[in-house]
Amino acid sequence: MVDRMSSVRWFSMKTRLGTGWGLGAAICWAIDPVFIRWGLAHFSSPLWGAALSLLACLGIYGVLVVLRRRSDRLPPASILGWQIAAAILVALSTWIKWLALREVPAGIVLALGRLSVPLVVILSPLIIGRSLERLTLRLVIGAGLITIGTMLLIRSG
Q: Phi-psi category of 78—alpha, beta or left, where left has phi over 0 and alpha has psi -120 to 50?
């Protein structure tokens, strides 16, 4: 009984920590387009802005690696390949977002970006496996509501 209670507390703490990090990411993603729109007024090409934002990320990640003070070994080549592919997709996503923000209001770009949620809900169990990414009714309903809300925002914008 005691073991079960401690695992419930741990899960609860883990869930709260993950939720906090998720909210922090949402705040950063919400502020980011405002700065991008400002940058587009000063840069001749969205590619410059995307490159600078990726350089800023690299600098932040570099500081975090130094602060960790642990010498982590590189992951196996099979995993490293997936991580490199993910990094390339993030870079393309950043550039494409800058291109989109040059053409349409930030609200529309962000609304379209939220369509990534249903895609993740669908693709994660297929790619990662159902043992790590469980598809629940609540998750499907939430992704559906996000999709409906996105469509409403796009139509009104």
A: alpha
